[in-house]
Amino acid sequence: MSPNKPLSLEQIRTMRKPVRNINIAHRESLSKLDKLALVVTVRVGTMGFFLIILAWTFIWLGWNIMAPSAWRFDPYPAFVFWLFISNMIQILLMPLIMVGQNLQGRHSEARAESDFELNTQSAREIEMILQHLENQNELILKILHHLEK
Description:
- By secondary structure, the chain is an all-alpha fold.
- The chain has one domain.
- The protein contains five helices and no strands.
- The protein has helices spanning 9-15, 22-29, 32-44, 47-66, 80-148.
- The model has no long low-confidence stretch (mean pLDDT 89).
């Protein structure tokens, strides 16, 4: 490409890559287990989930402290069954959340790469437009000089 000769519209169109939606591409690349991990990661990371766990804890501990002795199923102060269930929730959620966060990280990297490609493409096209305008300005100046003579 010569700096004095502007590119034709067809040349510019053939150089341009189609813009792809990285969100759709990422979503389509996920397996069912990946989607499950993302759903769990998104849901567990909310205040709603925190409030559910907090309410469950207060109800469980409150019941086993204040209910009549015959109705208590997890004796105070050990709360062995509550600790067991809490640990099982943690053991199951931690790796699942880590998988979901890794998937979210890959998606973020793909979006950043896509943004970089689009920005680079835009910069090239802007440079071509500026070059085209510069060539037009030179042509207009030549015409004006010719008319002045």
